[in-house]
């Protein structure tokens, strides 16, 4: 049995208007079974059901945060698990999806990093997160218009599957997302960033997890960072901008006493000179045994002011889903003491 969602929409197993009907059922209606596709002839539905499965997940659990975000914990067909996060805002709905089970980047302040690497997700397991969250929230899949590849995993190390997933998200007959509302976040892999720049039909946004302007600090918090120097990462970011003309976002998780010193803000501003960029400061989200704590609000403000005074475009990311273990860096398959519900029975 193959997962239908692993296919590019243009190679779905039907032709012409039958294919359009099938795509409409999967991505517009969010149909959970071939049997539900009532305008397809019964023999076609039966044949599809013999060869393909629609659902990448064996089980789905949810943990709801008091701020409205929902952590989705998925059990895949091989029993492995990973997570996505749904974040409703007043004016939009955002989903944060995983590209791997676990992560090989091993960032010291990230709970997923501490799990180590499990395996890559397939394109359908990535896209399936969107359909499952829409189903769980009782909305149409296309109502989820903003997506970030910022869950578990390093998307540029699962490059081909992530690119196919992005093409399915953007495909007008699939999820029809706008490329401006899809962001890929990477730990900073120059080769992958250059490859992404060359995918010109794609045009999704790029965010780079820099987290420190100096090698010593960066390698302390991103142990795999020694493979790619900050100089190389910045060179790749500049090339990316030269090729695509797009603004680059830099993520910077604020770790108290580690990367939040004002001299580091000044060095960061220096690195960004001449680049059209945006810096996103992320208060560190705590987890048991991380050994790091977040900078205080005052410290974050001082860092912000130092950057702003140097002309850097900067904002602070509001944390979502902290009490559900769903905030940045907390995804590690834990079920905190919040209301947990099994979708199947909800
Ligand atoms: N592998 C990708 C996507 C990962 S997570 C990447 O490295 O960018 C998205 C962001 O959350 C990254 O910037 C990551 O460094 C950050 N992050 C990880 N753990 C965190 C934590 N405990 N608190 C705040 N941000 C964290």
From TrEMBL:
<keyword id="KW-0949">S-adenosyl-L-methionine</keyword>
<feature type="binding site">
    <location>
        <position position="103"/>
    </location>
    <ligand>
        <name>[4Fe-4S] cluster</name>
    </ligand>
</feature>
<keyword id="KW-0698">rRNA processing</keyword>
<feature type="binding site">
    <location>
        <position position="110"/>
    </location>
    <ligand>
        <name>[4Fe-4S] cluster</name>
    </ligand>
</feature>
<keyword id="KW-1015">Disulfide bond</keyword>
<dbReference type="InterPro" id="IPR027492">
    <property type="entry name" value="RNA_MTrfase_RlmN"/>
</dbReference>
<feature type="binding site">
    <location>
        <begin position="209"/>
        <end position="211"/>
    </location>
    <ligand>
        <name>S-adenosyl-L-methionine</name>
    </ligand>
</feature>
<dbReference type="InterPro" id="IPR048641">
    <property type="entry name" value="RlmN_N"/>
</dbReference>
<keyword id="KW-0819">tRNA processing</keyword>
<dbReference type="GO" id="GO:0008168">
    <property type="term" value="F:methyltransferase activity"/>
</dbReference>
<keyword id="KW-0411">Iron-sulfur</keyword>
<feature type="domain" description="Radical SAM core">
    <location>
        <begin position="89"/>
        <end position="323"/>
    </location>
</feature>
<keyword id="KW-0489">Methyltransferase</keyword>
<keyword id="KW-0963">Cytoplasm</keyword>
<feature type="binding site">
    <location>
        <position position="285"/>
    </location>
    <ligand>
        <name>S-adenosyl-L-methionine</name>
    </ligand>
</feature>
<dbReference type="InterPro" id="IPR058240">
    <property type="entry name" value="rSAM_sf"/>
</dbReference>
<dbReference type="Pfam" id="PF04055">
    <property type="entry name" value="Radical_SAM"/>
</dbReference>
<protein>
    <recommendedName>
        <fullName>Probable dual-specificity RNA methyltransferase RlmN</fullName>
        <ecNumber>2.1.1.192</ecNumber>
    </recommendedName>
</protein>
<dbReference type="InterPro" id="IPR040072">
    <property type="entry name" value="Methyltransferase_A"/>
</dbReference>
<dbReference type="InterPro" id="IPR013785">
    <property type="entry name" value="Aldolase_TIM"/>
</dbReference>
<keyword id="KW-0408">Iron</keyword>
<dbReference type="Pfam" id="PF21016">
    <property type="entry name" value="RlmN_N"/>
</dbReference>
<keyword id="KW-0004">4Fe-4S</keyword>
<feature type="active site" description="S-methylcysteine intermediate">
    <location>
        <position position="328"/>
    </location>
</feature>
<feature type="binding site">
    <location>
        <position position="185"/>
    </location>
    <ligand>
        <name>S-adenosyl-L-methionine</name>
    </ligand>
</feature>
<dbReference type="InterPro" id="IPR004383">
    <property type="entry name" value="rRNA_lsu_MTrfase_RlmN/Cfr"/>
</dbReference>
<feature type="active site" description="Proton acceptor">
    <location>
        <position position="83"/>
    </location>
</feature>
<dbReference type="InterPro" id="IPR007197">
    <property type="entry name" value="rSAM"/>
</dbReference>
<feature type="binding site">
    <location>
        <begin position="153"/>
        <end position="154"/>
    </location>
    <ligand>
        <name>S-adenosyl-L-methionine</name>
    </ligand>
</feature>
<comment type="function">
    <text>Specifically methylates position 2 of adenine 2503 in 23S rRNA and position 2 of adenine 37 in tRNAs.</text>
</comment>
<keyword id="KW-0808">Transferase</keyword>
<keyword id="KW-0479">Metal-binding</keyword>
<dbReference type="GO" id="GO:0032259">
    <property type="term" value="P:methylation"/>
</dbReference>
<comment type="similarity">
    <text>Belongs to the radical SAM superfamily. RlmN family.</text>
</comment>
<feature type="binding site">
    <location>
        <position position="107"/>
    </location>
    <ligand>
        <name>[4Fe-4S] cluster</name>
    </ligand>
</feature>
């Amino acid at each position: 049995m193959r997962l239908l969602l692993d296919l590019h929409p243009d190679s779905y197993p039907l032709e012409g208007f039958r294919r359009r009907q099938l795509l409409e059922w999967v991505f517009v209606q969010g149909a959970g079974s071939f049997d539900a596709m009532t305008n397809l002839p019964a023999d076609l539905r039966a044949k599809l059901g013999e060869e393909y499965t629609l659902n990448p997940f064996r089980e789905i659990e949810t943990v709801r945060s008091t701020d409205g975000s929902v952590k989705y914990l998925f059990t895949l067909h091989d029993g492995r698990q990973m997570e996505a996060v749904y974040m409703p805002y007043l004016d939009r709905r955002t989903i944060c999806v995983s590209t791997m089970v676990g992560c090989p980047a091993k960032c010291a302040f990230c709970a997923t990093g501490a799990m180590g690497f499990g395996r890559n997700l397939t394109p359908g397991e990535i896209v399936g997160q969107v359909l499952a969250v829409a189903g769980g929230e009782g909305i149409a899949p296309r109502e989820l218009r903003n997506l970030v590849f910022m869950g578990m995993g390093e998307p540029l190390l699962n490059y081909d599957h992530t690119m196919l997933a992005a093409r399915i998200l953007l495909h007008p007959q699939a999820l029809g997302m706008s490329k401006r509302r899809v962001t890929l976040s990477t730990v900073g892999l120059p080769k992958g960033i250059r490859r992404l720049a060359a995918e010109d039909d794609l045009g999704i946004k790029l965010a780079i997890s820099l987290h420190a302007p100096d090698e010593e600090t960066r390698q302390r918090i991103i142990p795999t960072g020694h493979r790619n120097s900050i100089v190389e990462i910045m060179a790749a970011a500049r090339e990316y901008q030269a090729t695509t003309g797009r603004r680059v976002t830099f993520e910077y998780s604020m770790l108290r006493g580690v990367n939040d010193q004002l001299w580091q803000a000044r060095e960061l501003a220096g690195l960004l000179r001449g680049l059209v960029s945006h810096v996103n400061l992320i208060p560190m989200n705590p987890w048991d045994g991380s050994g790091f704590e977040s900078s205080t609000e005052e410290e974050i403000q001082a860092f912000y002011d130092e950057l702003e005074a140097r002309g850097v475009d900067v904002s602070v990311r509001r944390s979502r889903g902290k009490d559900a273990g769903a905030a940045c860096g907390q995804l590690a398959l834990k079920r905190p003491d919040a209301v947990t519900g099994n979708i199947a029975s909800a």
